Amino acid sequence: MSRHATRSRALPRTYLRRRRQRGNAAIEFALVFPVFFLILYAIVTYSMVFLVQQSLTAAAGEGARAALAYRSNTDPLAALNDRASQACLRALAVVSWLPGAGSATGGPTSCTPAVNMAPAGCTNNASMDCIQITLSYAYANKPLVPTLPLLDIAIPPSLTGQATVQIDPENLL
């Protein structure tokens, strides 16, 4: 057999192999794409959860710092309650970018102040007055990224940020 005849027979086999492989890339893409999409979607979703959690904690800290501002009042309990309400207003202003933010209680974002006066005072120093700011966000009600049926199991229904400030009772009024 001549060299030319061998070459002409090999060409149809190669052509047939290539023809059988046609569409393989589309099938492989169809099988691999959902897995890659789920991984990317999980990364984005959990990044948003961590963003909200960090924002709530930072806002609670900002609210606690706002409670240190002087409020003139003659009654120590009223002064602490005024500071606590101002702290909640400041904390809610910091997280106003969240959907449904701005309600003192009952909305997706809520702020709960807790006031402890001396002598009960703070847990680590009973002689100090404490204001504790707790911010909560109902992530299940208002998610930043729509959830997929399988991924919503691992997402917490609500996120909470908390901060406490100690105030010396002698400097309260």
TrEMBL record:
Residues passing through the membrane, by range: 25-49
InterPro entries: TadE-like_dom
Residues covered by the TadE-like domain: 23-65
Keywords: Membrane, Transmembrane, Transmembrane helix
Protein origin, superkingdom: Bacteria
Record's protein name: Pilus assembly protein
Organism listed in the record: Paraburkholderia acidisoli
Organism lineage string: Bacteria, Pseudomonadati, Pseudomonadota, Betaproteobacteria, Burkholderiales
